[in-house]
Amino acid sequence: MEVIPAIDLLEGRCVRLYQGDYAQSQVFNENPVEVAQEWVEQGATRLHLVDLDGAKQGKPVNLEAIEAITQAVSIPVEVGGGLRDLESVKQLFDLGVRYCILGTVAVEQPQLVQTLSQQYPDQIIVGIDARNGLVATRGWLETSEMQATQLALQMQELGASAIIYTDIHRDGTMQGPNLDALRELAQTISIPIIASGGVSSVTDLLSLLALEPQGVTGAIVGRAIYTGDVSLREAIRAVGPGRIQDIPPNFDFPTFA
Q1: β-bridge mates for residue 80, sequence order
Q2: Is the pLDDT of residue 250 over 60?
Q3: What is the pLDDT of residue 56?
Q4: d(CA 91, CA 85)
Q5: pLDDT at 252
Q6: For position 55, what pLDDT does the model report?
Q7: Of the four listed, 78, 143, 192, 254, which is most buried by Cβ atoms within 10 Å?
Q8: What homologous superfamily does CATH list for 2-246?
Q9: Which residues in 211-240 are b (16+ Cβ under 10 Å) and which e?
């Protein structure tokens, strides 16, 4: 399983939000490039960037920081936040971004996902952010009436290469991922799923690893690696590719009804 560190950008700085609340932001570093380089040094194989300003404004805002990061690291970078038209996506790919994450447009303009997936094969990821199972949009400021599983199935049919699933109630809380929701999603679609939100320990990552055979291929880790509750290096060593043999023999994998 791929462990993907998150870098959330707000006004050019690296921050973390609590349950997606912009009013509850904590600045971890004024220089996100330093953060990106640190995660690479600890073994990251991909970086997850979120343009928080872009998510609110509906267009990329932190372009300078995003470009600086893509130029400073050699690993793939994925970016989400405010990507709601063809030009915005092209703009990021031109900066060296490997994957673009579409969120709000997946609900409001699903055909755009199909168009972009055809234009950029295997580079378009759909981010599904759910609140009580319903899809949230526009920087989590609005909640739709669409079920997350319904949207995921539609996006798979339109050509999305993967789904990033975030449980908003778990995001930034370090209360553990929503395993039941992830399992339900994995039973619904066949494209890869990347889990996001709530990871607080290596134990949480091992619990997600139990879902890897069903298609949960990665986990985004945010606050826990900034607070030191999780060592990125140790997390990658524990659940990274080929590491399933390193799981403690007495580890209690979660069971599902």
Answers
A1: 50, 101
A2: no
A3: 87
A4: 10
A5: 53
A6: 87
A7: 78
A8: Aldolase class I (3.20.20.70)
A9: bbeebbbbbbbbbbbbeeebebeebbebbb
CA separation for the pair 119, 74 (Å, rounded): 24
Cα atoms in the Cβ-side hemisphere of radius 13 Å centred on 107: 21
The rounded distance, in Å, linking the Cα atoms of 198 and 168 is 9
Two tokens, residue 225: 């690696």
> What are residue 3's DSSP bridge partners?
219
**Residue 199 pLDDT greater than 80, yes or no:** yes
3-state helix, strand, coil in the chain (%, to 5): 40, 30, 35
Residue whose C-alpha is closest to residue 46's, from 226, 221, 230: 221
Torsion, Cα of 47, 98, 181, 43 (10° steps): -30
Question: Cα separation of 230 and 239, whole Å?
Answer: 13
Q: Which comes out higher in pLDDT, residue 126 or 252? A: 126
pLDDT value for 243:
45
Domain boundaries in the chain? Answer: 2-246
The one-letter amino acid at 243: R
Residue listed under structure tokens 């490039």: 33
Q: How far apart are CA 106 and CA 157, in angstroms?
A: 12
Structure tokens at 160: 């999305």
* Of 187, 181, 124, 184, residue with least CA distance to 196: 181
HSE, side-chain direction, 13 A CA sphere, residue 167: 21
Q: How far is 70 from 47, CA to CA, in rounded Å?
A: 9
Instruction: Read off the tokens for 174.
Output: 């370090």
Say if pTM beats, i.e. exceeds, 0.70: yes
